[in-house]
Amino acid sequence: MPKKEDSLKEFIAEAEEIIEGLNQNLLAMEATEDKTAVRPDILNAIFRAAHTLKGMSGMVSLKKISEISHRLEDMLDSLRMGKLSLSQPVMDTLFKGMDLLRGLIESVNAGKGEEADIAPMLQQIQQVVTGGPESSSSPESGEIDLDLLKVLTEYETHRLNENIRLKLNLFEITVRFALETFDKDLAKLNGKLQSSGEIITTLPSPGMSAEAGIVFKLIIGTKSDLKTLQSQFPQDGLEIRPVDLKREGERTDETNPTVSTDEDKGSGSIRSITPTVRVDIGKLDSLLNVAGELVLTKAVIGQISKEMLQNQGFTTTGIELQKAYQALDRRVGELQEGLVEIRMIPIGQVFDRLVRVVRKLSRDLGKEVDLQISGEETKLDKSMIEEIADPLMHLIRNSLDHGIELKSDRLKAGKPEVGIISLRAVQKGNNVVIEVEDDGMGIDLAKVYQKGLERGLLDKNKEYDQRELINVLFTPGFSTAEEVTEVSGRGVGLDVVAKNISKLSGLVDVETEMGKGTKFSITLPITLVIIKALVVRVGTEVYAIPLNSVSESLMIQSTDVRTVERREVTRLRDHTLALQRIRDVFGLSPSESREDRLYVIVVGLAEKRIGLVVDAIEGQQEIVIKSLGEFLRETPGIAGATELGNRKTILVLDVAALIEEAIRTQAVDKKSDKATKRKTGQPVNL
Amino acid sequence: MPKKVLVVEDSAAMRSLISSTVEELVGYETVEAGNGFEALKALPAHRFDLIITDINMPDINGLEIVNFVKNNSAYRNIPMIIVTTEQGAEDRKKGLALGATEYITKPFDPERLKTIVKKITHG
Asked: Do strands A562-564 and A575-581 pair parallel, antiparallel, or not at all (unpaired)?
């Protein structure tokens, strides 16, 4: 069994959510005047809530919660199967049962155990179930002869029969969706169908392929006739036909006597345990988009205000506009911050998952490891959290598999038997730094060099420093299939980790010492939605460079540029920095102005750094990246477009791609160099 | 190669409990799906040695997943365990008739689940 506290924690978190949902559904049911018209999906959702609570509480030995939810589940099953009708005493029992469950969960959460007497509740349920009026539902007719029946659950079969009994029209809707989007497409269609009737089941057809997509059959019971339905869903690829079956069962009189008795309904607390609202992330995205548009509009107004003051002097209107602009600037800033804040969730959610992986892996590998976690409260954008989980998992597996030594080796090396892997998160300004550090054997750079040569990734005529050798680890093709181990090698190398982190505009740094251990540091921007950018100019073209990938900018003299192996480089402190002229990348016409002064923007992603050469730096600005249309989407080196305050649209550089491009051309150069026995200069000592 | 197990269950806590129970076995890893859609997406992306699926799920139920897998030439041979309740005898019968190999009932005994998983994937 997994650790009991963990299961209990997970149970409480989910139970709170279930109770929230249960409360809403009970209220919806309560609000339905005619209880025979309660939507079956609502009733079923209430049943499922009790069902899940029962299953889980049984697993974590919460006897009272399990007992109550079990009895409620039985009662709800009778309700949804039409064996019991929804009278007022039943409603009251449901509300009371929910309150009791909520109280029990609260007391367990507070560490007080299951503090409540459940006997009266059990008795009440018993009374309602045995004393309640029988529903008028007809016995299940076994008359439908459909292949379909074999995949319907008991409940779905009952719903099908109910629809037949109520003489509703049954239709089979066949629809084909693409494999990538079928879940969203289907959800959309279901949403629309639900307003016309009850979806009894959704059946995926076994044929499924990337080319043909996937076909679903939906069975719907509705009052509408075929024509109406067809006119409501005119889209292509949607086929509607009536379900062919014998209509059995007579319409029965379905007045359900409802008797109101109990007064204590509603007297119990209906406040929620956690004062939170669950929101679809898509809604937040669209709000953030609106905020993004506001930022752009704000910049336009700022620009107008500035021009007005410049052109017309300090007129009253000009000054008023300036003031209004400043107020707007502040408020838009607050709005943006507030929205971004809502999307933030603690990284602890990912860490928790990693704890499980480490526990399991260390057992499988026969290594003992103490995973030390800190900074789990550090917050990151929800979408980043999802994306960072896999790379982190990979680094941890890597540390465990390749970093931490076997116990015997550790003792020999004079280290404590138990290895340590630290997982830390800390916020630094607008970035979050996540570190995975182990006290294992470190990376053997001599081996890396050797393997780099074998794989043709390094040149034996050159000397490499530590940083360059570490870079090789992140190169595609460094780790190969033959050394895939069960643990860290799933055919995924560090190159994929680096690529995934670049996608998030992040950076990876590695520090390693033989015998002492290795530390991977990932620096990520807190959010990707609205970013700060450096606006640069090349000739008459203006570009934006995301600021979080810029490490510094320099101004150098053209005499500082040397050519090594046909590549322009310059000296940056003790290192050589490869240069890439933006002018050349996009094939712009050569500049007519004198070029004795160059601006170099040092960009670095995932251990690789290059200098982008531009003509001028125009300033810093907040931008909202918009994706380009179909036409320009595949343009290499361009990440998207943005608007500046002067209503001009400019392109945003894709730094990761530019670096890739620089490295690729370097590799190509190297190959052709070999072929032609290069003569340029002596090996460079970097 | 580790054995890969797909766990389809809409309750996150139950799903995680099933997964971690399976992962206690050396050489097993799990992929989790919170509903039938996620399960359908996961199928072509991995090579599974076993599928464990809940029956009572909204939209696509577990029987439909069994039916889907057992009628698809690419996945037909993957053994399946269905997760049912004591009351769900009817559904259990249907699941086994559709081709599921075994069943467990909720709340389940982790040791029994482990035994079944081992038996099915090795035998």
From this structure: unpaired
- Residue A660: which domain range? 530-675
Higher-pLDDT residue of A405 and A31 is A405
**How many independent structural domains does chain A possess?**
5
Do the chains contact at B94 and A150, CB–CB below 8 Å? yes
- Considering only CA atoms, which of A171, A170, A172, A202 is closest in space to residue A186? A202
| C-alpha distance across the termini of chain A, in Å | 54
The amino acid that residue A393 corresponds to is: M
Put simply, the answer to whether A150 touches B67 (Cβ < 8 Å) is yes
The predicted pLDDT at position A153 comes to 87
ipTM for the predicted complex comes to 0.85
pLDDT in tens, A11-25: 888 888 888 888 888
Q: Sketch the domain layout of chain B as residue ranges.
A: 3-122
Q: Which of A153, A363, A486 sits opposite B55 (nearest CB)?
A: A153
- A562 and A602 housed in the same domain: yes
Model-level pTM?
A: 0.50
Residues A514 and A535 in one domain: no
Q: Which two tokens stand for residue A56?
A: 């889980």
Mean pLDDT over A342-350 rounds to: 83
A187: distance to nearest CA of chain B, Å?
A: 9
Same domain, A538 and A645: yes
- Cα A641 to its chain centre, rounded Å, is 24
A380-396 confidence digits (pLDDT tens): 888 788 788 888 988 88
- CATH number of the domain at B3-122, please? 3.40.50.2300
Evaluate whether residue A252 is within a structural domain.
no
